[in-house]
Amino acid sequence: MEIPYSWLKEQVPLLPEPKRVADDLGRLGYEVANTTLAEEGFGPVVLARVVARSPHPDSDHLSLVTVNAGPNRIAQVVTGASNGFVGDKVWWGPPGTVLPDGRRLEEAMLRGIKSPGMLMSHQELGYRGGDEDLWIWTGPEEPGATWAEVMGTDPVYELELTPNLAQFAQSAIGVARDLAALYRVTPPALPDPYPASPGAGLVAVEDPAACPRYALWAVEVDQGHLPWAHQRRLKSAGFRLISPVVDATNYVLMDLGQPLHAFDRQKVALPIVVRKARPGEQMTLLDGTEVTLEPEDLVIADQVKVLALAGIMGGKDSGIDEATRSVLVESAHFAPAGIYRTARRLGLMTDAALRFSRGTDPGAVRPALARMAALLEAASALKEAGPAEVVGSALLPPKLPWQPERLRGWLGVDWDDERLASDLKRLGFAVKGSEVAVPTFRPDIEGGQDLAEEVGRLEGMDAIPVRVPRRSGVARLDPEVVQADRVRDFMAAAGYTEVLTRSFIEPGLASQLGLREGVHRLRNPLREEESVLRPDLLPSLLLTARYNRDRGAASLAIFEVGRIYGGSPEAPEESLQLGGLLTLSERPALHGSTSASVYDLKGAVEELSLVMRWSLALQRDSLASFLHPGRSLSIWADGRVMGYVGELHPAVQDEWRLSRTGVILLNLPAPHFELRRSVERPSRYPAVDRDMSLVIPPGLDWNEVDAVIRRHGDSMLTRVVPFDQYVGEFGRSVTVRLEFRAPDRTLTEEEVERSLSAILAALGGRGVQRRG
Amino acid sequence: MVTRDEARTLLDAATTVQAVEDLRVLWLGKKGQVTEALRSLGKLPPDQRKPEGQRLNALRLDLEEALAERLRELEERDRAARVKAETLDMTLPGRRPPTGKLHPVTLVRRQLESAMTRLGFDLVYGPEIESEWYNFEALNMPASHPAREMHDTFYLPPPFVLRTHTSPVQIRAMQDAGGRPPLWVATTGFTYRRDDDATHTPQFMQMEGLVIDQGISMADLKGVVVAVIREVFGPHAEIRLRPSFFPFTEPSAEVDMTCVLCRGTGCRVCKFTGWLEILGSGLVHPHVLRSGGFDPDQVSGFAFGWGIERVTLLLYGLDDLRLLYQNDIRYLEQF
Hints:
By secondary structure, chain A is of the alpha+beta class. Chain A is built from 20 helices and 39 strands. Chain B is of the alpha+beta class. In chain B, about 40% of the residues lie in helices and about 20% in strands.
């Protein structure tokens, strides 16, 4: 909301200087986003007296006007105006003047004659005045007086109103009430209500719950314009000047916060009826849109048609225009919820709709008409003030219990009852006995804590002391989150960098990868590519890999522990998944290079399982279709597949244009923090190592070879470590180191050889031969 | 027989360990000159035996010492040569262990969670797919309330939405507490709003804290908030409260803290005000207490919340929110 300082000062004459007001508005909860000066571009504009006027030698419609703008300042300006004669005072805009439309005046050549800037009309200065070309100034000011000297400098505050402030302070009087309370000066008062003429036959209200108060005023109007100061304030507040009636309604709106609506009496078959719409009833709004109404919508109708959507927008066939002389002015109070519902359904959040939705002051209904009448009169546009009919009685102010002890408790202060009551009184509340009467202009106040806020606002939050409460007991952590953070630490230590990706992905992405499609679709996504909640981290990781590849990243090692979304649309389930992605190509390194393989991913899973005590099992079967069937494993726990580790299927790598890429996907098991483990005391006796190369026939996995070795190695065999693999003409050979060790003695050569023979014999039975 | 001076000259000329060893054999070996001479002492006349024996023994000791000395010299020389030959270009970059990095938002989330637990808050979490009741109604935002439009919501099939804030966790925690104070809980997590521009991402992380007990006041709120902020931003941070509005708190206050960069003197970061808007707070609205099963006539509470990304930007001195979630590895590896 933009509001000029002068408007507030009109409400509260004892207002301090503008900078202090701006600071104090901040203390009261108003955010002053910006302060500008009204008509800042008019700086060079100056009052000048016409001292000579002659026709332009080369033009029939231009004149050369010599003006005197104070001592030693004489200029000849070219004008096309038909008025402005010797002796007249006119407004001269010298070069440098910036007009309301943003145009900057320069020294111009008009038909061969120089003209420094121009002489100004009302319209050029953004005002509504008479029909004459130049604005002839009739005030007492002398030539040489600048625009700002004549009109005054007027700071304009741009206020950001929180929703509660918007409920009571979206007007000059609303803001002024707060300021008057802060400065302990007389609060602004509403004008005396416009006299009511009961039984005028102008209006009937069928639904008093939806429209507790309705006033309609018949008035005959004439041409005219609001005083310059009023026009200037409206301009500063962002309004365009249109006609005396429209300008006056806008002025009342910003002045008192009461929306008014004007009907053309000639287009209305009186009396007006305030009623609910009939099912299927239709109307054309002021802006030309056709709407179909529902019985929950409140309308203003006459005897034949709907005139307006109550509190939201007028109809096309009942509005006023320049020629309207006979006007019906509506000032009403509507129940907020109904207006909000209709405006929202129809997408018509007009300024009036917003204000009525937030709640207006029922006490302002009649004073607003009085202010309207006064403005029309000041505009010389009030021809005949007719009767006003008012339906509905003045609402009693709501009451809240007076509980000073609780106010102190909420604020944490020791202020006495008197101080609290006086704070509230300054804001318009009345403490009487055991009750607090809430003024009708405060629809935002609902309960005691609201009163605490009012006291806090007025006293200033700095006045509240600081106290540090203590809790008893020990703060608890969440096991699932602790586990997830341990997994993150592990992955980072293992060389993977954490990413945080968006939870929504493109529909179909998951199913293309052979995953279950996401079941949760956003009804209003920002874009189609982000409209389904991911059922798995894989698509997010692939998108991240592609994003980085497009930016030149040759190799990647990334992970995320993030939420995935399952269950059904009716019963959603969220769980945590670990996703890792590793580029399986050479990683460049300064001192030689190391190559990443699927065994790095597998090793990470194995070590993670050990560290987290998860007892995961890895199997070659039950793979997902996005995986390379010969280079992947499924991850199992408690008899269920928990995830996968391995290389992406070549088809997926091609589809995503990725180089060889491996992934880990693992649904985090339920957390358990088992510290017990079987820990062996290190042996004091030396180990005996035996290295041998084994030629393994095709189709036999290492798992099976390992099992045979262990089964026949008896208890002396403490470790089996395959450390090299070679594929040659003879087939595949794996070099393995066997470690033999006894806890209680040094082993003899014979014992080890005996065990080795047994192992080799058993391996031979499976077609495994020792090489060389 | 070798003399001391000859021995010195010969040893100086010997530049390898083997050459020195050869000299030792020549002089002191089993058949060396001095050894032989000592062995044949008996052949000398008796009166010469003693002086000659003393002379030869002294010579032997001298030679042994000279030989050892020369060997030490040569070893030192060899070691110096080896060290020189092994010298590396130590200005080449170090070979770092291939560790990954945690995301800055994770680092800051943990920092905040740690501060909150040290202050005594239990950490609790809630679902991101949330019912409209938990996300709005329970928090005093009925469908007819204009305040609901402050939140640009992602809708799922009714009754679900993507939570627009972490505040529904307050309600869940209150319900879990069964209406029995005291309750000290904090939560963090992703939240979602339909906003995507230079200063908003549709998915962002919030943290909030909630205390409910008998006699909790705005003074308690100020005490805890200043403690949290100093825990995160350092002991110099000061706060100020400005009246504000949130549907779920009453009174509500925006908390500013002294600028992290200029400490309040005014700079570009704080737009020359000396203050940074950092956190929203207030006393829990009675409607919210009732939604959570607490009696607003018996207890009161305060709540506060902030955006973890904003804290991240301030702590690390960053200026672009969007980079945090682009997941460009070149960016993330710097944390």
